[in-house]
Amino acid sequence: MFKIAEVFRFFNRNFYVFLATTLQTTVCLFVCTLLACNSFVSNMNVNKFDDFFINREFYLMTDNGDDDGSYQQYMESTDDVAFNNLSAFIDELRNQTNFSFASVVSQPLTFASEDVADSQFNDVENGIYDTKHTNIRCVQISENIFDLFDLSLLSGRIFTEDDFVLTQSKPVAVLLGSDYQKFYQIGDVFFAEHGIERLSFIVIGFLNDGSIIPEGGRLVNLSTYMVIPAFSSFDLKSYHHYARINLSQQANGFIICERKGMDISDYVNQLSVKYSTFNFTISPIVSNNANEISFLSKDIVEQLSMLSIVVFIFSVISIVITMYSAIKKDRHILGTHYLCGARQHDIMHILANEILIIVLISLLLASLMIDMLHIVHPILIIGSISIYGTVLFMIVFGLSWFFMHIMSVDQLLRRNH
User: Fold this and answer.
1) Would the pTM count as exceeding 0.70?
2) C or N terminus of the chain, fewer CB within 10 Å?
3) Residue-by-residue DSSP string for 174-218
């Protein structure tokens, strides 16, 4: 009881010092945690950039159907031969072991006015709302996208093999970006138009914040996207026209190859001839500035890390000076405790509790401030701020104990004049 009572008496005697130190510690933890989290996320993105653009070769496939008239023939054919040929062509690409073929088809889901509440998507980031329809960003992805780009979920499940089969008997499985948690729950069913078809959709999960995949020659953050399967099988009786369009879109995918010097263009051309399907133009994505961009990004990450360390060291020094001033001001009280039988261990407990209360209050305030900004994943916040708070407590307590330890008894008993 003595120790707790003395802690509160210390704060009462040094209320403004306590207030200023708590505010200063809060700002320190807030800034350092933000810098550390941003540094960590940036470092992950730089590594992904290196892995994607520098360590692997990336090729876009673009069919020449519009130029040579083969697309019109494909769409107007009275049988399913052309469709089956293209499907077999895509299947062989997907089963290749020398490279990875993936499809990312980006187009909106269109909600009719009767399918969406007036206030549900009046958010520029999520969709463009008017009185007739709402267009929501949507992307179809092939099954291997999850492994290729390390996609993970906040909740729910990923697509299964059955989800890549389009039939009228079941709704289309959809994964939602993290921003849609305020609109939907897992298991919700809704209707929307995808291309030329009105389909029913069922929510099976939510993607983690910061889920990023390539689309064309750019990287796309899926936080504001709805993600559906790139269908590998269709009920042709029900979706004959849609299936042809969608399959041709999937064929315009991309190839990721780790084997340098492999002639992707020649391989795809031979495969096109084998299956009597579209001819494709293979366009390697080559960035002459990729290494420079990677170097600059790493430099920025290092600068963020250094800035975080500098801010932390400055804050520690400032907080230690403040605590030392408070200790000097109250040294005669601590000296009196010594004369009354308190051990050094008891005095250090009082000091530790004082610092611990300041750090804990600052941790709580800084965490709430960062959480309100919604710019960092909660787990990352908790991990970073806990480490900073623990290190801050240990350093401030250690230095404060050192200054207390070197004070002689007569210094402790001397009053301030």
Assistant:
1) no
2) C
3) EEE-GGGGGT--TT-EEEEEETTEEEEEEEEEEEPTT-EEEETTE
